[in-house]
Write a structure and sequence with these properties.
five-stranded parallel sheet; 306 residues; alpha/beta; 5 strands
Length: 306
């Protein structure tokens, strides 16, 4: 899914070498129902992935990603359709967890309320503030649930595509999850030493021993890297966050994630010829594709191994 492309600006995206399905709402409900909870951790781009999944769960292209049940007239005008993903006007109105939909607008949810549980924890800084880690711990049970949890991460732009900062962030998130849920990894968990400038090859064995548990705990994990930048990207960010930097970052994160047993989904190819609001964030169509990529990954998780 990461390696496809488009033939022309904003034409349909075609994945390369794989069969990426576009699921119906009923199929999406069934996929999500295989998991006790889907936890998404990251920045505004990941918030938009959550919003796009909610668009499909609520079957509402106009307001599916936002809390339209409490909107005033101005919000209904400013946060409609594409503008649901306007980070300046509509970020606080985004839906952060499906339980809020169940509580405030249950009739809009196409799935059974007790079958879908998805939440985003916005965590972007490294070191991660203790209160954010505590909030993450609170939503993860200490005892093994009846169905698996899936974890989806996204990081990069907040730290100016600093690879070391992103990998250290990922390590701290993984360690925090493992400490909160020992059932995820039967083996003892110890995090690698923090990276100072860039991930060091001398730490690789320890990283693998600490994070890659292919033969023990069942722990579905995916990391998304940022989408391509657009023509509205402010000039002062072109060098550090332009498309060359994004491509290099995506390739490096894929390598480091693999060492930790975390699967990687790149979004640069998907988004290079798509529309962006501000040169950074893709529009409704682009976010729906991201969300469908994530759902395809969730569909491939072998939950029967849990």
């Amino acid at each position: 899914m990461s390696g496809g492309g488009r033939i022309g600006h904003d034409v349909p995206y075609m994945p390369r070498g794989c069969d990426m399905r576009w699921f119906s709402t009923e199929e999406i409900c069934e996929i999500l129902s295989r998991f006790e909870k889907v936890i998404i951790i990251g920045d505004s781009m990941m918030r938009h992935v959550v919003g796009s999944i909610n668009v499909m769960l609520r079957q509402d292209l106009g307001y599916g990603a936002v809390t339209d049940w409490n909107f005033n007239a101005d919000e209904r005008r400013d946060c409609f359709c594409n503008y649901q993903f306007n980070v300046k006007a509509c970020s606080v109105q985004g839906i952060f967890k499906t339980s809020d939909v169940v509580k405030n607008d249950p009739d809009s949810l196409a799935c059974s309320a007790d079958k879908v549980d998805m939440i985003i924890e916005q965590m972007v800084r490294y070191p991660i503030p203790p209160e954010e880690l505590s909030r993450l711990h609170d939503i993860i049970p200490s005892k093994k649930p009846s169905q698996p949890y899936a974890f989806i991460f996204g990081h990069g732009l907040w730290n100016n595509l600093d690879l070391a900062a992103t990998i250290n962030w990922l390590d701290q998130v993984l360690e925090g999850i493992a400490q909160a849920a020992p059932w995820l990894q039967p083996d003892s968990f110890s995090s690698p030493e923090p990276t100072t400038t860039q991930p060091q090859s001398t730490h690789s064995r320890e990283m693998i021993a600490s994070h890659k548990r292919s033969g023990s705990g069942f722990w579905p994990r995916l990391i998304l890297t940022p989408n391509a930048s657009g023509k509205r990207k402010p000039d002062e960010w072109i060098v550090t966050q332009g498309n060359k930097a994004l491509m290099v970052f995506e390739e490096a994160v894929k390598i480091e994630a693999e060492k930790r047993g975390v699967e990687h989904l790149g979004t640069w190819n998907m988004s290079i010829q798509s529309n962006k609001f501000d040169g950074v964030h893709v529009d409704l169509k682009g976010n729906l594709i991201k969300a469908m990529m994530v759902l395809n990954w969730l569909n491939m998780v072998e939950v029967e191994k849990f």
